[in-house]
Design goal:
Elements: H1 2-11, H2 24-129, H3 132-153
Length: 154
């Protein structure tokens, strides 16, 4: 039975559908409507592309100089940092030399103190041997002798 239905369906005239069912006039009207719709969307897409291109162009005109200035500033900063690093390195070397000089100077001061300790000790011994009472008496005696001479030459 299924085979008989298939045979009948194949032999029966098929009903036209879609484009086959339309007349030439209807097809032309439908084509014009589609073309107008496509044209409208094409204009919208074209205007959008022009707008996007303008936005990108304006952005590039504004951003490229700023980017170039930023890169120049970065280059100057890196150059300055390099110079500062060189100066710091030179200062560290100079400080190292100064520290070595200070070590030598401290050794020399030590030697001077050791060398002069004996001289200071001898001077203090000599000062301790002075009899100040006798020295004061001698000064008073000299004063009593010089005073009459001073009165005479005034």
């Amino acid at each position: 039975m299924a085979e008989e239905i298939k045979e009948v369906e194949e032999k029966a005239p098929k009903a036209k559908s879609g484009v086959d069912a339309m007349s030439d006039h209807e097809l032309l009207v439908d084509l014009v409507k589609e073309q107008r719709l496509t044209s409208k969307y094409t204009r919208i897409i074209g205007a959008s592309c022009v707008g996007i291109c303008l936005a990108v162009g304006i952005s590039l005109v504004i951003l490229v100089p700023k980017l170039v200035n930023t890169l120049n500033n970065i280059n100057k900063t890196v150059t300055s940092a390099y110079t500062v690093a060189e100066n710091a390195s030179a200062m560290i070397a100079s400080a190292q030399d100064s520290l070595e000089g200070i070590d030598t100077m401290i050794e020399n001061v030590d030697n001077v103190v050791v060398d002069n300790t004996q001289a200071v000790t001898d001077a203090l011994t000599n000062l301790n041997e002075i009899d100040f009472d006798t020295l004061n008496q001698s000064i008073n005696d000299l004063h009593s002798v010089v005073e009459p001479l001073a009165k005479m030459f005034r």
